[in-house]
Amino acid sequence: MSLASDRAKPRATEKPTLYKRIRLDIETRILTGEWPPGHRIPFEHQLMARYRCSRMTVNKALSELAQADLIERRRRAGSFVRRPQHMSAVLKIADIRAEITALGRAYGYQLIDCRRRTATSADRARLGVSTAGKVIAIACRHSADDVPFAVEDRLIDLSTVPEAATADFAREPPGSWLLHHVPWTEAEHTISAVVADARTAKALDIAVGAPCLVIDRYTWRSARTVTAVRLHYPGETHRLVARFKGG
Amino acid sequence: MSLASDRAKPRATEKPTLYKRIRLDIETRILTGEWPPGHRIPFEHQLMARYRCSRMTVNKALSELAQADLIERRRRAGSFVRRPQHMSAVLKIADIRAEITALGRAYGYQLIDCRRRTATSADRARLGVSTAGKVIAIACRHSADDVPFAVEDRLIDLSTVPEAATADFAREPPGSWLLHHVPWTEAEHTISAVVADARTAKALDIAVGAPCLVIDRYTWRSARTVTAVRLHYPGETHRLVARFKGG
DNA sequence: CACGATTATATGTCTAGACATATAAGTCAA
DNA sequence: TTGACTTATATGTCTAGACATATAATCGTG
């Protein structure tokens, strides 16, 4: 994740289509502040005249800007540059194996513990389910170039993902397995900071009391819980990077 | 065939428009897993027949799904459900004052230090600029119901935001001021964990060595640096929550 | 079999219209 | 002044075509 990089999009002499040019023109004016928040964008019929095209073409450009939340369209009134209301950052949380190999480092994986059991009340609370089905509880560690990268503590709900019972988590990390076997999921991430307890410190090879970044991820698929996972990262070496989206 | 004439006219009973219904139908099939990643979506001409509409209508539905990264469109080949490749979570990082008042708590603000100076080499490195202009350096604290919420350490580039020279940061938090005076920005957030040093511990009223969540935000506007800010949150009480977006 | 040329086809973009609908703005009466 | 009614207008959706373009498949040749 390079700093401030995806603005530069080379691609020298390419002829963009008209609606893309219209969209980019408007986007540029907004981003540079030439058209500040609240500013009314020219009406569709004015843009038709300026670009000498049909209304559907300018409509497509404006619709995409509206879908991207850059402008707001109001019937009879016109289209307006949206007022910044909150920063919403897009945080890319990759599969850990993919993340490490993408960095050009050697991925290592150690299964610490894996057991299948009937959900305890603590398990049910953590998964947010009320009935006591079977679950898999996994503890494992990810490393990059043989340096501990993160420890993982996971619970998988077998009533949602029965195929997980046959997976070999000694060989494949559960996150990667799930990513390839559960098609589309929703998730909630909670990020916090703690200091390492003895067990975490040992697994990450850091000092007890050293800071750790903790990510709790709760994943479900159409109202059914898939998995709950807690990841500890060494806080002084690991960083989460979230890219913008002003407004 | 009984629906053959439902096209052009009265039909006031149907609320959602047709293209939205098409989009929702497809989205539902993807999200439930009925159409798994890699599955080819019916061709436009098939959807035209199924929904008895023109190609532009199904095209609009599919284009929006493509813009939302839910499907991938390939010429001659068709449209395909996208394979999950990374979890990208949307992290809402509100203006701190807005965040606290939204929680129904009393917002408090204390300016600790504010000085204007010519950028030192450290300032220039932090802002990512090469020329030595004027900057404002601010340290302040936010509190909720009189409990310390976060400490802020900020640098504002006056060559990008000259108006900031006249702002009264003793009264208004710099984040809020910037949000209302700099129209559209891009930003990069870096999240990490540290343990509190003496100064931070004192400001946050926590113990030295307690975990802190650190957010570094680097903000610019069309290639010009606006501000760089570092926020320390007490890690055991503060949590960042990022909601989903599977795939 | 390998490989380049050709073809078929699904998407990409665009047009010149149409009617629907929400609503800002103006009009008029109480 | 205020509230109810009317009108004008910008966007929302849709059609039935058109040509462009990338590329998967097929075909032909060495």
TrEMBL record, chains A, B:
Gene3D superfamilies xref list: Chorismate lyase-like, Winged helix-like DNA-binding domain superfamily/Winged helix DNA-binding domain
UniProt keyword Transmembrane helix, yes or no: no
Record PROSITE patterns: HTH_GNTR
SUPFAM superfamilies attached to this UniProt entry: Chorismate lyase-like (SSF64288), Winged helix' DNA-binding domain (SSF46785)
Coiled-coil segments on the chain, per record: none
Top-rank taxon, per record: Bacteria
Pathway of action: Amino-acid degradation; L-histidine degradation into L-glutamate [regulation]
Positions of the HTH gntR-type domain: 16-84
Cleavable signal peptide: none
One term of GO molecular function: DNA binding
Gene Ontology biological process terms from the UniProt entry: L-histidine metabolic process; negative regulation of DNA-templated transcription
Pfam families per the UniProt record, alphabetical: GntR, UTRA
Keywords assigned: DNA-binding, Histidine metabolism, Repressor, Transcription, Transcription regulation
Purpose of the protein: Repressor which binds to the hutP region in the histidine utilization (hut) operon. It blocks the expression of all the hut genes in the absence of inducer.
Name this protein carries in UniProt: Histidine utilization repressor
Lineage: Bacteria, Pseudomonadati, Pseudomonadota, Alphaproteobacteria, Hyphomicrobiales
